[in-house]
Amino acid sequence: MKKYLISLIFLYLFSQEYTADFEKLGVSACGTGMGGAMVALKKDGASFYYNPSLSALNNQKEFYFYHSENFGGQFKTEYFSFTYPKKNLALGISLYANLIPNIPYCSLPYPDLPPNDSNNQPILVKNIFAYDLINYYNFSFFKDFWAIGFNLKFIFRNLGTKKGFGGGADLGMSLIPSADILLGLRIKNITNSPILWSDKKREKMKPELAVGISKKFGNFLFAYENEWDYNNFGVEYKIKDLVYLRSGFYHRSFSFGFGIVYRSLYFDYGHETKKYLESDLPASVIKVSGGIKF
In terms of C-beta density within 10 A (0-12 exposed, 13-18 middle, 19 or more buried), how is residue 11 classed? Predict the structure, then answer.
């Protein structure tokens, strides 16, 4: 155990500073309503994105979709998944995409000189379509009161001016000490998830730890998650297993949402009040998700 801990510390310390924000926008409207506290919460078909072990807690096959318009609608996030449980095992596959159209790409008439208002103003060359694609392959195993799971992922990034290929893995574990309590742990990018760019540069994403707990009290469900620098909270109230009302705090910002369940179908809406950087643009205009279990 000691040598594995030392290896993880080595990977963390010798990673390049790299923000993996393109993978951290979330893929669940239910999760948005719950303040992003999803590492110990089995709610929908996006669960293995937040904690790879949670898919083993499924007892039905499930198709799932998610749509989000981020940062004032400037770009969209799409997510599709399929989960296939069998006895105490589960397999999952999903596609995560960030789509960013119509990015102005400009140049200067005199590139060696600073831009000015007279003879060196930026000139529009073309509009760029940038996008991120991540393909996840999930495997999880459940026994007694614990579960463990892995996500193997392949990454393709097109920034318009350069392209990047990479991949890596996420690790997740869950404990169920009682029927109404769930404990979760996730280490995202435990393999550093390196990306090799077309300009020969190489970047790595640092492993990120998240731990959490969820607890049921009658019709109420409470969830808490710690992401090193942030504490995320969420609460849900269900009405006759048909309507679910949610609110929470994600990265110190208020969020809320609701869910509707009809037989094997479900639909969720989430809204976050977080602003984009220092502007007045909301981080998300719309977040919806849903699925079917069979």
Answer: middle
To which H or E segment does residue 93 belong? strand 89-107
The number of folded domains in the chain is 1
Residues 6+ apart with CB under 8 A from 60: 85, 264, 293, 294
Q: For position 94, which CATH number holds?
A: 2.40.160.60
Q: How far apart are CA 233 and CA 215, in angstroms?
A: 12
- Between CA 207 and CA 186 the distance in angstroms is 10
Give the pTM: 0.86
The tokens 């479900």 sit on which residue? Answer: 266
The partner residues of 155 in beta bridges, in order of sequence, read 134, 166
Q: Which domain holds residue 110?
A: 2-293
Per-residue pLDDT tens digits for 143-185: 999 999 999 999 999 988 889 999 999 999 999 999 999 999 9
What tokens were used for 47? 């669960």
Q: Which are the contacts of 101, defined by CB distance < 8 A and separation ≥ 6?
A: 75, 127, 129
Beta bridge partners of 166: 155, 195
